[in-house]
């Protein structure tokens, strides 16, 4: 469960952990979620940080690349190809006379409907107050919902996961975190193939090693594959 305003660190650490685990050649050959998380929080702090800046620093450290995705369709495509996608959104914290704001609506909905699908009508229309940012991981999708892994512990919503009807409900922004085959050794590519059908390669931010979720197994992305005009941040340290 996250400490302070470290949702950004939890999401980035989870994406890095899951990506590197998929190319690991053996148990312990990949960085553990807790170790990555500690490094990020030590550098960027417990009071929030810009997701772009964190990815600029830590994706290259693990030979990963990342890109901003244009829309929900691209995010679904990335997940279908086996990659967890970082997502961020903003909601209002309070408004006059109703101090809980949109965040109160968000939390109450999933308290009352742990497996429910959040829609626009479940959040009040609000244009005043303080905006609060949150960063999560898109790990799966259903015909009528996107499934996210949260960092508020397993008591939130559906064992730490929650569902949203579509990207417009929360105004979601997406980041794809991935390897290119050109960045990997033959052994790592083979290791990825061997683990591609293993359903235990992901889990909750509470316990990434023990809670499994299906749907994160696919081929490695290739340069230019299915992306006409992506903004790709290469795995080189500036």
From TrEMBL:
Molecular functions (GO terms): ligase activity
Keywords annotated in UniProt: Ligase
Domain of life: Eukaryota
Database matches in InterPro entries: Papain-like_cys_pep_sf (IPR038765)
SUPFAM superfamilies: Cysteine proteinases
Name of the protein described by the UniProt record: Threonine--tRNA ligase
Organism of this sequence: Folsomia candida
Lineage: Eukaryota, Metazoa, Ecdysozoa, Arthropoda, Hexapoda
